[in-house]
Task: inverse folding
């Protein structure tokens, strides 16, 4: 139990994460094309006010961790025609991410 | 009609948006929310931001390995060393290498490192560029005249939130011994967005 509050970063660089596949109403800064896809944490950018809240003229506080997540293009676009290693990197807030680890069942 | 004659005053009617701008500006001044001097200062500030700023940063990084390292670690702070204020947002500088080519987009709107590159070009804000460069970056780069070889990874950076991105291009061969101003002279805006690479003529 090292996590103090829901505003603390919970993902580490290199960790596999999955973007929530959901479409809430309002102003969203998580691109539609990446929702539901899995990627790898490239870096933690810091904590920033929540854009969905800012768009409603609220404070967006407490600030939430923002990550840069790296996705393989071939996984994002099944018909991608570039090089296998090509990637797209996107800033995504923690509340849009969930762990993507394969669950090891005993 | 020559450009000069246009500037000196052919009395064209204002367009809808020009009229809206004038009306809003005059109202804001009249109500004391902003002053004319503040508006002038802001316009001056916007005009002073041009890609030459980004070019200075890259030229310094090419000639000073310590600066380059600091720039890649914390772009905002490194720019402050050059007296370039990057207010209220974080600059992430991404480096082109023989293995990786970087290109920048904002698929959601038109986020752009204005403090270093000025006002974004129209194509950067177009739906065509924004929707296609994430999906078929190699085809889009080819349309800009840039063929990225198969062995080189293309890394697209979608600026969706609080970071802003600038590409640090590779220093081309044939520039050995050049000083910073001369290096800066080959650094175009497009090189720092990642849709071109610096050319030595």
Result:
């Amino acid at each position: 139990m090292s996590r103090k509050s829901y505003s603390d970063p919970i993902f580490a660089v290199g960790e596999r994460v999955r973007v929530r596949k959901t479409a809430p109403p309002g102003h969203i800064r998580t691109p539609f094309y990446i929702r539901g896809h899995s990627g790898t944490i490239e870096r933690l950018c810091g904590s920033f006010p929540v854009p969905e809240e800012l768009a409603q003229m609220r404070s967006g506080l407490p600030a939430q961790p923002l990550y840069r997540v790296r996705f393989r293009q071939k996984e994002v676009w099944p018909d991608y025609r570039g090089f296998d290693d090509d990637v797209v990197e996107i800033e995504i807030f923690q509340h849009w991410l969930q762990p993507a680890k394969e669950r090891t069942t005993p | 009609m020559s450009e000069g004659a246009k500037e000196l005053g052919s009395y064209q009617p204002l367009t809808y948006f020009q009229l809206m701008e004038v009306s809003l500006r005059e109202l804001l001044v009249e109500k004391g929310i902003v002053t004319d001097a503040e508006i002038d200062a802001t316009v001056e500030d916007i005009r002073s931001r041009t890609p030459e700023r980004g070019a200075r940063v890259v030229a310094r990084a090419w000639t000073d390995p310590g600066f380059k390292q600091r720039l890649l670690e914390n772009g905002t702070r490194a720019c402050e060393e050059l007296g370039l204020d990057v207010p209220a947002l974080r600059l992430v500088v991404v480096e082109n290498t023989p293995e990786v080519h970087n290109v920048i987009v904002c698929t959601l709107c038109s986020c752009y490192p204005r403090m270093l590159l000025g006002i974004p070009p129209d194509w950067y804000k177009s739906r065509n560029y924004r929707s296609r460069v994430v999906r078929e970056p190699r085809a889009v780069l080819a349309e800009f005249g840039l063929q990225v070889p198969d062995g080189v990874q293309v890394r697209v950076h979608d600026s969706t939130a609080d970071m802003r991105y600038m590409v640090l291009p590779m220093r081309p061969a044939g520039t050995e011994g050049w000083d910073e101003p001369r290096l800066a002279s080959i650094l175009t805006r497009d090189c720092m967005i990642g849709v071109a690479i610096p050319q030595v003529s």
